[in-house]
Every structure is written in C-alpha cells, then in structure tokens.
Amino acid sequence: MRVSVYVHFPYCLRKCPYCDFNSYGTAREDVPHVAYxxxxxxxxxxxxxxVADRELVSIFFGGGTPSLWEPRELGRVIAAIRGGFxxxxxxxxxxxxxxxxxxxxxxxxALREAGVGRVSIGVQSLDPERLAWLGRLHDAGGxxxxxxxxxxxxxxxxxxxMFGLPGQAPDAFLDDVARVLETGVxxxxxxxxxxxxxxxxxxxxxxxxxxxxxxxxxxxxxxxxEARMARAGLEHYEVSNYAVPGEEARHNLHYWRAxxxxxxxxxxxxxxxxxxxxxxxxxxxxxxxxxxLETSGSAAVESxxxxxxxxxxxxxxxxxxxxxxEGVSISALREATGLDLRExxxxxxxxxxxxxxxALEGDVLRVPARHWLALDAIVTDLF
Length: 383
Ligand code: SF4
Known about the structure:
The chain is of the alpha/beta class. It folds into 2 domains: 2-254, Aldolase class I (TIM Barrel), CATH 3.20.20.70; 328-382, no CATH class. It is 38% helix and 24% strand. It is built from 14 helices and 17 strands. The chain has helices at 33-47, 71-83, 105-114, 128-133, 140-153, 170-182, 200-206, 215-231, 250-256, 289-295, 310-321, 330-337, 346-354, 375-382, and strands spanning 2-9, 11-12, 24-25, 55-63, 87-98, 118-124, 156-163, 187-192, 235-238, 241-243, 260-265, 269-273, 280-285, 302-308, 328-329, 359-361, 364-366. The strands form 4 sheets. It has a 9-stranded mixed β-sheet with strand order 9-10-8-7-6-5-4-1-11, sandwiched between helices. Helix 6 (170-182) links the parallel strand 7 and strand 8. Helix 1 packs across helix 10, helix 2 runs parallel beside helix 3 and helix 6 packs parallel to helix 8 (215-231). The longest helix has 17 residues, at 215-231. The two termini are 27 Å apart. 40% of the residues are buried. The structure holds iron/sulfur cluster. Iron/sulfur cluster is lined by residues 12, 15-16, 19, 21, 23, 63-65, 99, 122.
C-alpha cells in the first residue's frame, strides 16, 4: 500500500486578497523556523506509526509559503518522514511550493541539499498591473529569475499561473505561458481565479465592487491554453495541469487517484483508509499556528475529523479521478472499497456516454478533455 505525506507551512510574507488557504501574513524575522519544525516532528511521531508499514511515494510541502522555511529545518522534517516508513519508493518525489520572493539560486541549492527534487513556483502572472491587482509581492522579472535559478539547481521545476483575471484577453495569458515555457520548465499549472467567501476579494465581490472575468472569457482562455501547451509538448493531464509526459506531479496524481495521505502541520488535512473495514478516516489539524505549536504531538492537535464510508470513497474517487486524463480505474476502486462504481449509476453513465461526455473504455471511466469545462455538472450527475 502506498502513502504520501503533506506538510503544511502556514506563514506568508503577506496575505493575498484572494487567498482562502490557511496562511498568515508574518514578518520574515517572526517566522518560528525551529519551533515549527519541532512541532511538525511531534505530530509526525504521533501520526506515522499507524501507516509506517506502507510505502512512502511522495512528500509535498504546501502553504502558506514553505520556501520561507529555513532549508535546514525543512530538511529535518524530510529526514523524519523518510525515517518513519519501512519502505520508501526509489523515485520518492519531494516537492516544495515556493514564492519568487523567497527563492533564489542559493535557496534552491539548499533545498536540493535538504532532499528536495521539485519546486512549484507561484508566478501567477507576468503582467505588472495584474500582479499588483492580485497583491503579489514579486514582479515579472523576479518570477522569471526564480524559475531560471531554480532550474539550475533542481531537476524538476513547475510554474503556477492564474487566469480568469478581469480584462485579461486569452492572448495576454498565452504570452505569460510562452515566457514561462521559455525558462525551460516542463510542468505548468494554470488555475482559474476563484472568488472565495471570507477573503478580501470575496467581500468586495459581495458589495459588487470586484470586476471579474466572464464565463465566456474563462472558457476561451481554457481552450487556448491547451492548444498552446500542446504546441510546446505539454499534455493536459488534469484540469489545471500540463506536463511533458513523465513530468507529471506524482504527489498530485496519487491524490487524484484517491490514494492515502498523511497531513501534518497547522490546518493540514489527511485521509487514510482502513483496508479491513474499507472505510477511511479524514482529519484536520489545528489551523491556528500558535495553537498548533501548543497542541502538536497530542490528540488535541486534531480540530476536526470524519469517517468516510466505502460509498463516500467512491464518490470522492469520481470527483478527483474524473479531473484527470487517465480517469478512474474501476478495478482499483473495487479493490479499495469493495464497490463497483457503475452500480446505481448505469443510467447517468449511459446518458453522458451517449453525448460523448463520458468514456467507458475497458476498466477505465473518464471524461474526455474537451468536456472538462462541463466537469462539475457531469460529476454531480454521478453522485
Ligand atoms: S502567497 Fe499563496 S498561500 Fe500565501 S497568501 Fe498569497 S496565495 Fe495565499
């Protein structure tokens, strides 16, 4: 059985106005590098024994801005995770999410020394006006420099971009894509801006004071991106992700295949199955960094939990797996849950398949990429 580990680092230099992640604007000198690593190590010591017999396949540091974390401390965490498993995959993938303001060549080299092989860099845009609108702290030159310098030290570098920004024509976004690809990256994530309640943008939107892109502009850009990436040899392997074949994010693939993952750190979510009952336990750790530091290592660190039934797990697997080009393996899901995903869904599958929106090919159910714009409706039909 395979398992991944997700480590959440909740500190950022400044909170972006659109962000609803568990992240907190913190002055660089106030980040508690050692204390936070100690707290994560305590949580690992508490959580890992229950999964120690599984094979560790990937580690992902997300946030927040984990590139702010002293690489020495991040390296202590990597070592503890590796040491917590009897089996570690020979191609273990270790990824760190980075912001251009906390990544240069020296930091990339230090991350490599710490055991990191892949970074995912939050470029978001290369247009000065849009970067300012998004409240980002870097400029286009800084983002491109971070991509180039990271590529000199690390074998795998991904650039993250954001589209669906007001007034952003598809061509303008494709220019950003082209400039990111020129740096030699072989993986790009292109996320649509979403307006989340509780964020600064969410509040402005509620008051009607936030210009946002229309659905048509979003759809036009979505389709144009795929064509542009294909010309550069990157496959659209998940709704928001493109990669040269073989360069896909293995951590995310494991997640979209509904694989088990242990989440540690403030506000991290984990979900691990029980192969006997075929249920799964999902939890969330204490989100507030200060309380996390105080409670980590004991049951008090868990702020929320739930049990997923086998049928819940089938629904999740559909929701996640149908986002990908590879789709959902019926036999793998049956092995994990004891259920055949087709049961009770025959009519919905037949109806959508007749329209070409679902493809049932041998053991695999998938949504062809040309219908990903309608994905939510298709998945809802299968629930
Ligand atoms: S840098 Fe990322 S995690 Fe931090 S506030 Fe901005 S969007 Fe959120």
